[in-house]
Each structure stands twice: as structure tokens, then as C-alpha cells.
Amino acid sequence: MINDEHRKKLEKVSSRSGYFSTENYKLLIISTDFHSQNAGFVFLGDEIFEKVQDKFIKTDFAKFKKAVDDALAYFKTTLDKYEEEVINIENVIYKNKFDSGFLSVYFKLKRNFSLLAILHEYFMVALNDFVDEFSGYKKEFKNDTQSLKRIDKVIDDTSSRLSIIFSYYNSMKDQKHSKNLYILTMVSAFFLPLNLITGFFGMNTGDMFLSGANGTVVVFIAMIFFIVISMFWLFKFKK
């Protein structure tokens, strides 16, 4: 009934939805999952045939319409579920309560949502192509095509929210990293003069410069003088 190329597309589990028009028949493939068998409907004139296992069985418009409505309902339900997950992640990230497992949860949701967006896009295009060619069905599928457009808009908005969440997460991680570096720098700056003094006077030499009785005092005063001059210069330079 259909050629080998279209049969392979229909039988391939990972196929996407699509509408194919030939001189002998029209084929509409409905796919809502990359892991399950696709639904296929062949149109020969006014007759409709549905693929059931390895055969094409004649069916009616009501059953075909139900298959389209079921696919649309699946996209609506799944999108609602993913939107709830996005809201939960937003509540966690904006309260700064994310942990080491945040990225794993985020990328799992991002991957599943991206697959849904791909499947929905192909289904919407396939149904629109079908309705454009079968103009007599435009009235019956008017609500479906409008619903698909609304879902497409929600998918775009949700995708933007996911991108904002990831950007916010990165900014928070960068801010935390910068704060840790600042603290480490301050601690190092505090102990550096002490390390220099300890290292200088800890050397086992008796005739070195400033190794006498008042050497420590001289070095300490010199360091204070150097720090004051440096702070004054930095303040004046920034001003």
C-alpha cells in the first residue's frame, strides 16, 4: 500500500511525526514518543486505513480524529508536568538552596523537555500540512491547530525560563567562587608579612643585615611605613 521508504519511517520507533503526499496515497505518521510504535494513517481517496501491527485496516474518520486528539492531549499533559518541575527548580534556585545534585536534575529535565519540544514541532507541522491539503477537514481540526500553536508558545516560554535558571545558577556559582577567592586572598595577605619576618629572622646567620637586638623592631616599623604609603598611593590613584 505504501512504498518501502515510508514503511521504514512508519515502523522505525525513533521516527518523528510527518505528512507525506504521493500520487497514489497520502500518509500521516503520528509520533509522541521516541520509544514506542508510531501511529500511521493512509488516505486513498475518501478511504482511511490505519496501520495495525503489520497490516493496514480500513477505519473511519472518528478513529483517526481520536488518534490526533490523543496525541494533542499527551502533549498538553506532559507539558503541564514539565512546567511544574520548572516551577520547583525555580523555587529552589531563587532561594539559593541548590545542592550538588542540582545540575543532574536540571539537565535531565532539559533533555526531556527538548525531546518533547521536537516531537511537538514535527506533529504540529505534519498536521498543518495534512489540513492544508485536505481542506475539507479544516473545520474539524481548527481547534487542534490552534491548541498546537498555544502549546508551541508555552514551549518557547518554558525554554526561556530554563535558560534563565541556568544563567542564574552560573552567576551564583561565580559569585560564590569570587567570594572564596577574596577570603583566601585576605588571609594570605594577613599572614604574608609574618611569614617574611619569621623566615628572615629564622635563618641561622649571625652577621646578616638587621639580625641584631633591634632588628625586628626596625623591620616592623619599616613594614608599617610601607603599608601606609601603599594604601595612600592606592587611595589617591583610585580617586
From TrEMBL:
Question: Which regions span the lipid bilayer?
Answer: 181-203, 215-235
Note the Gene3D superfamilies from the entry. Magnesium transport protein CorA, transmembrane region (1.20.58.340)
What name appears for this protein in its UniProt entry? Magnesium transporter CorA family protein
Compartments it resides in: Cell membrane
> Where is this chain primarily localised?
membrane
Keyword check for NAD: no
Return the GO cellular component terms, semicolon-separated. plasma membrane
Record flagged with keyword Flavoprotein? no
Q: Which UniProt keywords apply?
A: Membrane, Transmembrane, Transmembrane helix
Q: PANTHER family of this UniProt entry?
A: CORA FAMILY METAL ION TRANSPORTER (EUROFUNG), ZINC TRANSPORT PROTEIN ZNTB
Native organism: Campylobacter hyointestinalis
Q: Which InterPro entries match?
A: CorA_TM1_TM2, MgTranspt_CorA/ZnTranspt_ZntB
- Secretion signal: which residues? none
Pfam families per the UniProt record, alphabetical: CorA (PF01544)
